[in-house]
Amino acid sequence: MIREKVATLIWYLERPPLYRELGRRITNFRVTTKRERERAAADKDAGRAWCEAHRAEHAELLEALGIDAPLQTLAEAHPDWWQQAHDAVNACPVKMGGPAATDLLYHLAKHLPAKAVIETGVANGWSSLAFLAAMADQGGGRLISIDMPYAKMKNEAYVGCAVPHHLRGASWSLRRLPDRDALPAAVAELGTLDLAHHDSDKSYDGRMFVYQQCWERLRSGGLMMSDDVEDNLAFRDFAGRVGRKPYVFYKKPGNYSGALIK
Ligand SMILES: C[S@@+](CC[C@H](N)C(=O)[O-])C[C@H]1O[C@@H](n2cnc3c(N)ncnc32)[C@H](O)[C@@H]1O
After folding, report:
1. Within 13 Å, how many C-alpha atoms sit on residue 145's CB side?
2. Do residue 142 and residue 58 come from a single domain?
3. Can you say whether the dihedral through the CA atoms of 144, 66, 212, 102 is positive or negative?
4. What is the pLDDT of residues 63-85, one digit of tens each?
5. 145 Cα: distance to centroid of ligand 1 (angstroms)
6. Same domain? 69 vs 168
7. Within 10 A of 238 (CB to CB), how many other CB atoms are there?
8. Residues 14 and 39 in one domain
9. In terms of domains, do 23 and 94 share one?
10. What residues does ligand 1 touch, defined as CB less than 6 Å away?
11. Ligand 1 centroid distance, CA of 61 (Å)
């Protein structure tokens, strides 16, 4: 346990851009009590139950956005890029976080259309591929992706590996920093956002931070998407705070993504 903590500390100390995150972790460090662990489990149960009760069909969101193109998957639209992505991910020696709702993100970004996009949480980069492919289809745009690799995972060289090289042009900027350090500057840089996607820090506070930062810069009619919204009740609470209808989509048993239209 102590050896693990020391190894994590060394990992951070070797990365000066992450010193602020290290400071936050040291300041907030405390041993979680049994009661807190039980509360987190109860929040997850409540989050799952809420998602199940609010499940919507993709068609409802598409209709609300005025998108009448039938849903086309990324594999159908760009079979070569899809195959390249799979080959790259299969060749990756490190197992990273699972994909977001890639096909839905691609379809929404393409038809919104989304020219200015922020995403938090990259890992293999399935969601990055979805946004960049949509931008290639609609003749350009800018994606800023934020990802702080997990400590000691040795995956830094592979973050975003699903994105084929020809899509890694001026449209894409990958910032290897925590949300809290990279997001305020990123949203300011893009000015007004068409779409924001959260798939990084899944804690209640981590979600609220990203949702709030992005919502303020989202244009009217823009879209905020979030993955794994069953983890806690942050997505429900944020939808209530901004007074918008939450759209919740089933991904697989016990796993949902969410959307809010500004
Ligand atoms: C579930 S994965 C993202 C999957 C990706 N959206 C996709 O579709 O392939 C989550 C990623 O968020 C990163 N992450 C976790 N906490 C973070 C934070 N506080 N700031 C930035 N990135 C974070 C992790 O290192 C990981 O790479």
Report:
1. 24
2. yes
3. negative
4. 999 999 999 999 999 999 999 99
5. 10
6. yes
7. 22
8. no
9. no
10. 96-100, 120-127, 146-150, 178-179, 199-201, 206
11. 25
